[in-house]
């Protein structure tokens, strides 16, 4: 009496969506504990660690957001193709 789950009933957890979540959550978690990077050493070209660490995360966050966006687009195309193929 068990039936296959209906995919139209709600969100489906896929590996791609887990990776998207991790990509979007990583910068938040990395910068959440300020006391872990609130120091001046090691300095990078004269810039205290506190500042260059945050600026590095701006670049990392940008890259992770682009990755998440591309994965989301691919996931949506795959779902649309599967939905279109199921209706035929």
Automatic annotation (TrEMBL):
InterPro entries linked: DUF3311
One Pfam short name: DUF3311
Transmembrane segments: 12-30, 50-69
Domain of life: Bacteria
Protein keywords: Membrane, Transmembrane, Transmembrane helix
Coiled coil region boundaries: none
Name of the protein described by the UniProt record: DUF3311 domain-containing protein
